[in-house]
Amino acid sequence: MLSWLQILADKKKSVEEIVKEHWMKYGRNVFTRYDYEQVDASGANLMMNYIEAHLVAFVGQKLTANNVTFTITKADNFEYHDPIDGSVSKKQGLRIFFEGGSRVVFRLSGTGSAGATIRLYVDSFIDAQDKDHLFRPAQELLKPLILVALQLSKLEEFTGRKEPTVIT
Predict the structure, then answer these.
(1) Longest dimension (CA), the chain
(2) Which domain holds residue 73?
(3) What is the pLDDT of residues 84-130, one digit of tens each?
(4) Number of domains in the chain
(5) Does residue 58 belong to any structural domain of this protein?
(6) Sorted alphabetically, which InterPro entries does this protein's record hold (predicted)?
C-alpha cells in the first residue's frame, strides 16, 4: 500500500493512468474465471475424461470464434513438482495452450454428493502494439477464447449448463 502511495505521489497521476502507461509499454495480461457450481458430478467427470482423452488430438487444431482463429500448440494434464520436498501433485488441471500464449485450464473440484464445481480459467496477452484491443474490457477480449474452450470441452453437452454460476 505504501509503495502505491509513493508511486502516486511521485507520478502525480491516477492509478488508471499509471496502469494504462504500463500496458502501452509492456502489454497487458487479461484473465477471467468461469465457475460452474453444483454441476452433476457424473456429467462433470465425463467432460473432464473427454477432454483428457483428446488432449493429444487437440494439438494442431485450429478453432474459430467471433472471427478470431486459435491454433492449439500444447495440451496436458498439469502436475506440480515441489522443488523442496520432491513431492508430485498430479491432475491439477487440463491445460490447453494456443499460439500467441493464450491458454485455458479446466479444473474439477468438490465431486461429493452435492455436485461438482467446474472451473474454467482463461488468460491471454495483448501486445502493447495492438492499440485496437489494448484498452477493451477483459471479458470482451477473452470472449472468443471462452467460446473456443466451451466448444472444445463440450461443457453444455456434458453438463446441460449454458451459463456459468460465477464469472470473476
Answers:
(1) 56
(2) 28-167
(3) 999 988 888 999 999 999 999 999 987 555 689 999 999 999 999 99
(4) 1
(5) yes
(6) A-D-PHexomutase_C_sf, PGM
Q: Which cell goes with 74?
A: 500444447
92 inside domain: yes
Burial class, 162, CB count within 10 angstroms (exposed 0-12 / middle 13-18 / buried 19+): exposed
Q: How many residues does the chain have?
A: 168
* Cell numbers standing for residue 58: 487437440
Asked whether 107 and 35 are in contact (CB, 8 A), the reply is no
Phi/psi class of residue 27: alpha, beta or left (left: φ > 0; alpha: ψ in -120 to 50)? Answer: left
CA 40 – CA 30 distance, rounded (Å): 30
Integer angstrom CA distances of residue 107 from 4, 80, 135, 140, 143: 34, 14, 29, 23, 19
CA distance 23 to 2: 22
Task: Say which CATH number the domain at 32 has.
Answer: 3.30.310.50
The Cα-based distances of 137 to 101, 107, 116, 168 in angstroms read 19, 25, 30, 13
